[in-house]
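User: I've been going back and forth on whether these two constructs are worth ordering. Before I decide, could you fold them both?

Assistant: Sure. I'll take them in the order you sent them. The first construct and its structure tokens:
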Amino acid sequence: MNKNQRPETRERILTTSIELFSQKGFDGTSVNLIAHEATVNKALIYYYFKNKEEILDTAIDSLFAGMTDLTLSFVQETMVEMISSKRLDILTDCLRFIDKKSLDEFIERLEDYYLSVLHYAIDKKAVLRILMLESLKNDSKYSNGLFKFLKVIQEDDQNTIYKTIYKADQDFTYTSEMTLHQFFFTIIPIVNFAAYLDDYKTLSNKENQTLIDSFLRSCHTNTMAFVSGTDLLLHNANN
């Protein structure tokens, strides 16, 4: 095999596998079927991957690496920058902005971040659908796969995102309520929307962009519910 063809062949095996896993389920997809659909021989699959698990692990690791990179970019370019310029101060219960202009700018950048994450999730919807399907199986190795998202919204020395924010303002911490809210009211809605977008588009007879715009308006409503003056609350004001 030509060396220049190797990355292309490996990617074709990976892409084909993910499509099959999302359509037929992980257990319902054999290596023989992957080889047939990817138009490669079975031995070549084992040249690149030890087994089916390694194929899916590779796709999942890539998914979370991309999500982490997008989040870290937002943290560095928005949160750290605004903290450094004294426009944002993190308190135990809120993000406090120096004025409304700074708060509005933060919300605008936050919504741009949501949009980039949403597009990325839509692009990776096949992997997300696999994780959702596997999460319903008690005996699956990947039954807790969706909870890997918690790694980026927890106080952990291995969490680069947490360490980056904490280095900029040591008052920052992830409370249990904040983690719960971000997981169930931000991450999971994005995962669900991306996974079911094509199905909902067919049922609603609406265009992708119309549905995306509507979803982002819902995200905006959710964010604004936590605004109090020039503060963005980090937990429900009633608690």
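The second construct, handled the same way:
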Amino acid sequence: MTYTLITGAGSGLGRAFAVECARMGRNLVLFSLPGSGLQSLASDLRTENRIQVQCFEFDLRQAEILKEHILFVTEHFPIDFLINNAGIGGTSSLTETPLERIDDIIQLNVRSTSLLTRMMIPHLLREPNSYILNVSSMAAFTPIAYKTVYPASKAFISSFSLGLREEFAGTGLSISVLYPGPIMTNSNTSRRIIHQGLKGKMGLLATPEIARIAIRKTLKGHPVIIPGLMNKLNHSLLNLLPLGLKLRVVSNEVKKEMQWSAT
């Protein structure tokens, strides 16, 4: 009767994680923003997979509310798998990015992930075998102009995850980090990918496929997960370039996105 806790489960990759875990027969605790349709998803998952699903809709950026929910969850449900998926990004010049947007990215991608992980680890260690999957991004591998804060936040997730993995080596807790490429998570992202044509679709995988690869590799103890052959190839090729050239090439491509992107 253990549970998998998934953040950002109302849509996109988080929803795909929930569906994939349910198909594996895993009970679920789902976190998402209010109004995300989480109750409807939970009802479908219960009916189709005969599992237990608990839903909590709140804003992860509100630290005190997050603490209250984690206290309740850890008192009532044995968690053996944590998936830190919730995150936000955007493409715009830094001077044109609202201060609130910058703060949102840092609070959600960095602060809430760190706090949630810290609060969950003692609980996870009670299980003979437990897992954490943190969702980073291919953007973590290089600084990027016109995104700046987002890849920096995902680089934090990468460093945070791999450091924790070493810290808890030899325990029953295994920590993995996922670096997905482009994902059609919303209308703005989808429009950008479509307008880029073949180039934009390089490395693009269906969201359910990313979830399937990530969960199975996490449960096998893989530390680093880059889904898709093209993403692995892009990562290897970019590593061959000097940092300055890599930064210029990637940033020039991102600059072209701005006409299709929302902050």
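Notes on the second construct follow. The longest strand covers residues 27-32. The CA atoms of residues 136 and 154 lie 5 Å apart.
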